[in-house]
Amino acid sequence: MNNKLYGNLIFELSKEGRRGYSLPANRFGNYPVPKELQRKEEAGLPECDELTVVRHYTNHSSNNFGVNNGFYPLGSCTMKYNPAIDEEMSAMPEFSNLHPLQPHHTVAGAEDVCNLLSESLKAITGMEAFTLKPYAGAHGELTGLMIIKAYHESRGDMKRTKVIVPDSAHGTNPASAAVCGLSVVEVKSRADGTVDVDDLRSILDETVAAMMMTNPNTLGLFEKSIPEIAELVHSHGALMYYDGANLNPMLGACRPGDMGFDVMHINLHKTFATPHGGGGPGAGPVGVRKGLEQFFPTVSPYQGNFAVAMRAYAYILSLGKENIKMVGPLATLNANYIKESLKDVYELPIDGLCKHEFVFNGLKDKSTGVTTMDVAKRLLDYGYHAPTIYFPLLFHESLMIEPAENESKETMDGFIEVMRRIAEEAKTEPDTVKNAPHNTPIGRVDDVLAAKHPIVTYRQMCNNKQEQ
Ligand SMILES: *Cc1c(COP(=O)(O)O)cnc(C)c1O
């Protein structure tokens, strides 16, 4: 793309008096705008011809990298397959034009979608009831913890102020606990990456409200001690919370409801379609076991993010009961294929079978000085999105890789080849890797400067010169 020709900002292309569009004639007559609501100054809108506008935005849009452009191995965030048919379903005017305040008898179809989705989620997870209201995973966690708090309070048990969270947990877990007014106690991981049950035993007491767990955990490992952990936690009167943000490796293999979890959330936008790059949209339905349904709080009006629920239901229906069972095994196979193909050149801190994702601790050869950040940036040069980096915090150079369940072998082979090439470059031409990316519209940015001196506004001068 030629940034100079089409400009970084539409304002920089503005020429006084240019027109790209003419408004239709005013059909409504002239109504006086009260003086106090009238502008004191010109709006300062850009003035451009049609082709300049079209090219400007088209070129900007092609700078985006998404799952439809190429391989997107981001771990912990399951940037998965988002079939176009799910988009079509949720965009059907019969659904997308609904108003939340429409008379009840006119929205029976949408109500069916919500009920059928809840039924499907119950069957998939083994939970007793679901609320579709939460708008995201973190919102689901907060909702779930509010349920747990309400449960303890309903029994007059007011001393439970702590939530136990593994040190490998997603950052939203401790954050949600804090927002819910609970304090966080960290439980350690064992050398094999799973929860240290002895450490848990030493933490548990009558002030613990809940234990939050992710399974497979953020290292992509199946927590084999869950039955033992659930029994321990329950014996101390606390509840088990399941972070089901990335449920895909579990689909058809096992159900959190059968493992002793009391409350859980699912990220529909990670496990059941909906593209969610750039922070949205999402939906984090919360499920509870029998006996906790009466504690569902009102965390949003109406039925939550209906368009996301619609996509999820279309996704589940299009796979069906039989095919949905293939998702978990295929996600697991793909992750293990990549892990095994690269572990001789990247450091694998925890060996063994992983589930849908796994974590390397940077390059195996530490003598080159090439970091995980450098590898991630160099991948952009080769047309791949970077994996999740520097998370989880258990390792200094975390590189967390997750292929989707439906990636072809050829796609993964291409990624493996490039990862091996970068490992080779780290030895032969380390500066190329350290200064990457070279082929992107913007090169390596200065993270520290951007964080310390962010420029978040754009000021335009009247004479069309701008300062930043
Ligand atoms: C993504 C994620 C969350 C948070 O979900 P949001 O929708 O981003 O709020 C929580 N836990 C895990 C394990 C996740 O991967």
UniProtKB/TrEMBL annotation:
Its EC number is 1.4.4.2. One of its GO terms (molecular function) is glycine dehydrogenase (decarboxylating) activity. It catalyses: N(6)-[(R)-lipoyl]-L-lysyl-[glycine-cleavage complex H protein] + glycine + H(+) = N(6)-[(R)-S(8)-aminomethyldihydrolipoyl]-L-lysyl-[glycine-cleavage complex H protein] + CO2. It is an enzyme of class 1 (oxidoreductase). InterPro entries: Aminotrans_V_dom, GDC-P_C, GDC_P, PyrdxlP-dep_Trfase, PyrdxlP-dep_Trfase_major, PyrdxlP-dep_Trfase_small. SUPFAM superfamilies: PLP-dependent transferases. It comes from the Bacteria. Keywords: Oxidoreductase, Pyridoxal phosphate. The keyword Oxidoreductase applies. Residues 159-277 form the Aminotransferase class V domain. Residues 330-429 form the Glycine dehydrogenase C-terminal domain. PANTHER family: GLYCINE DEHYDROGENASE (DECARBOXYLATING), MITOCHONDRIAL (PTHR11773:SF1), GLYCINE DEHYDROGENASE, DECARBOXYLATING (PTHR11773). The glycine cleavage system catalyzes the degradation of glycine. The P protein binds the alpha-amino group of glycine through its pyridoxal phosphate cofactor; CO(2) is released and the remaining methylamine moiety is then transferred to the lipoamide cofactor of the H protein. This is glycine dehydrogenase (aminomethyl-transferring). It comes from Xylanibacter caecicola. The gene is gcvPB.
